[in-house]
Amino acid sequence: MEVVFFQNYFFLYFFSLVIISVQSTHLQGTWDTSDFFMFLSKFGFQKTDLHREKETDGYIFGNITSRSNTSYHGTLAVLNRDYFLEYYGNRFIFDKDKACAKMFNKLSTVAYDPYCYDEGYDFLRKVPCLKGELCEDEDSPQNVVKHSQFTYHIRDLSEPRFWYVSLVSCYRNSTTCQWHHTPHNIQIEYDIWLVNGNPNSSNYNPLVYQFSFDRQNTIELYLVFFLIYFVLVPLQIFAVVRQQHPVTRLFTASLILEFLGLLFNLISVMKFVVDGVGYPKLAVIGDVLDILSRTTFMLLLLLLAKGWAVTRQEFTWKPLLFSVWFIYGVVHILLFVWNKTEVDIIEDIDEYQTWPGWLILVLRCLIIVWFLLELRTTMRYEHNESKLNFFLHFGASALVWYIYLPIVALLALLIPPFWRYKLLLGITYSADCLAYCVMTHLLWPTRSEQYFLLAHRGDASDELDEFNEAPHVLNSGESLIPSWDKNPLIT
């Protein structure tokens, strides 16, 4: 299977050329005001529990300073979606003074300012702050988290909500209350935390504390499936050692790729619990391995549907098969990269609501039809009862694996953004895990010996039996294929 390895190397090479943006909840870095605008994070804060308000509120806190003292400043903005859309949409105006005025046009009437609007909401901070001191806009030092220069306290009693954190090179004139572009370049260093729970308390839940609401409790999913694969993978390795067969080897490769992808994601998420960053590169590698696992598994299903290594050692239309498989894999990688780099942060959509997503769904539906036609043709000319039973069970389980993705993608349109990611992740991992378990059962050596074409045989009578049951030999016994599917004998 040299094409498999070629595709894998191609994917890894292609991926290495793309810079993937990975978000964290512990934000560290530098920003130059000459860049005008810098988006930092989109974070989902949970609904506040009235009975445990302080423990279930959201917090944004940290330090933001400059290496040199300056009288000029920019603005740190923490906004919910209602105010963020207008602010974000005007950032590309060429005249930056006009851009600042447009971006803060709506916010000027609602955001707190000690000189211009002292009854507003706590959305903005003047940055940088002086080293070792609280930010200028912090008028309640007792509310600031220890060792921090600023603190935002997020409380929502109605529902979870996304908040957007950004830096912009704009300042408000305290005399005229008008917004202007910051005329000087300032190097700003920031160290910001976004959390669900009280950072001053030691009783917060570590499994949700660092996570945006839409990603909370995903670590449990990773742990459950990791434990399942931790048992399944050694069993399959035992099977492939016991029975050296191309089908078993290809399936084992797919299963190991899935296990490694899950392991890398689990390690990254467990690190994320501790520091709010995780191992972004490792998580990306895990996602790529997961994609390679699914594309390899899809190839295995197509090969078995054509009867490879079960009814025949060779099959027709090899270039077409591998071309379709390769295109599907490339589009899958394209979808992954597109979702990470091209989807605008304000869009509450999942990966299957983009044009690469729709393309991969169309391809998958076409492959489903092709799979069924190939399986029907293979079964039509097969007369071995044990092999027919295998194809029946294989076809049913493979069809479930094929069709779950289009169905889930359509259902995701109806699911609120806060629950969509967890739904897609849970169903995807469940369907993959079920498919791997069923395939492990079907390909277990004591069962597969009944229908695999083995490379070495010890008894010549076995070859005669195989010949008598071959597709080109008429079998006088009863067949599992309905009579209307049988070819009439022409004499």
Automatic annotation (TrEMBL):
Signal peptide (from-to): 1-24
Membrane-traversing stretches: 221-241, 250-270, 282-305, 317-338, 358-378, 390-415
Domain GPR180/TMEM145 transmembrane intervals: 224-439
UniProt keyword list: Membrane, Signal, Transmembrane, Transmembrane helix
Presence of the UniProt keyword Protease in the record: no
Classification via InterPro entries: GPR180/TMEM145 (IPR047831), GPR180/TMEM145_TM (IPR019336)
GO biological process: G protein-coupled receptor signaling pathway; response to pheromone
Highest rank taxon of the organism: Eukaryota
Keyword Amino-acid biosynthesis: no
Coiled-coil residue spans: none
A UniProt-annotated Pfam family: GPR180-TMEM145_TM
Cited PANTHER family: INTIMAL THICKNESS RECEPTOR-RELATED, INTIMAL THICKNESS RELATED RECEPTOR IRP DOMAIN-CONTAINING PROTEIN
This protein's name: GPR180/TMEM145 transmembrane domain-containing protein
Annotated source species: Nezara viridula (Southern green stink bug)
Taxonomy of the source species: Eukaryota, Metazoa, Ecdysozoa, Arthropoda, Hexapoda
